[in-house]
Amino acid sequence: MKKTVSKKEKTNVSSSALSDAEVARFLKQLASLYKDKRSGNPELAEALTRLAHSLLSPADDKRPSEFEQPLPDLTAAELQSMDADAINQFLCDETKTKNELIGLASFRFAIPRAKLQRMKLEEVREAIRSSLRHEESLRIIKEEADQFGMTRQS
User: Of 7, 23, 24, 30, which has the most beta carbons under 10 Å away?
Assistant: First the structure.
C-alpha cells in the first residue's frame, strides 16, 4: 500500500532543512577562505558573497556575521614563517582580533580552526603560547641531539 504525503506534511519536512540565512552564512564563510589574493580565488569569493547576499532578506543582511570579520593583514605564508619574537609581539598586541589569532594558530601551528572558534580570546592566546613553548622545546632537543651526534665517536 502506497502512502501519500499531504501538503502539510511536506511543509513540516522542509522546515527541518537549512534556512536561507544559514546557507548564506556558510557561503560567506566559504568566501572568506577564498579572499586572499595570493593563495585564494578573489573572483570566486566575490561570487560566493553575492550569492549569499541574494539569499538573505534585508533584515538578515544587516545583522553582523562572525564570518565578516576582516581577514588578517598577513598571508598564510607570512604567518607560517613568523619567528618566536614576532609571534610574541603578535600575541601582545591587544588590537588583534580573535579571527587574526585563529589565523596565526591555524597556519603557523596547524591547530584546528573549529577547536579555536569555541575558545575564548584569552584561551586562543594561551593555545598559541603553549604551541610556541612546545616548538621551542623541540628545537632545544634537536640541538642537543645534533650536538651529541657530532661529538660521538662510535
Answer: 24
